Amino acid sequence: MTAEQYTPGDPQVIDYGSLLAAVARHQAEIFDIAVYPEPQDRAAALMHQLIRVPALERSNELFATAVAYSYLVASGCSVATTAREVRSLARAIREGKLGVTGVAERLSSWVVDEAEGEEVGGEDEEED
Known about the structure:
This protein has seven helices and four strands, in the order ααββααβααβα. By secondary structure, the chain is mainly alpha-helical. It has a single domain (about 5-125), classed as Up-down Bundle (Four Helix Bundle (Hemerythrin (Met), subunit A)). The strands form two sheets. The chain has a two-stranded antiparallel sheet with strand order 1-2. α2 (about 15-25) runs antiparallel to α3. The radius of gyration is 16 Å and the shape is globular.
């Protein structure tokens, strides 16, 4: 699914520069070192940019959340959250209460760590 499928009413883009900035921001490198090294960091950079510098005529928080969620899933993460957590995070970004680091921390709490469950399952199989 793409982020536009999560955004009802097909809002028009009013600032293409914000979209381009979001792409550039999440891919940023300094001396060949990623500014945002983890998927949660990159998703946070996208979400923060798209809420703080709106690209659409409306529904920017919903769009930004869908972009961040979709980015995490496309990066191989399993994501579990609630509508309440989503609204709370978007509000905190909009109100300037969270920077990218804080957003990344919150997004990290949405990522379900399946690897540990698989390792435990693998150990059980070896013991049988």
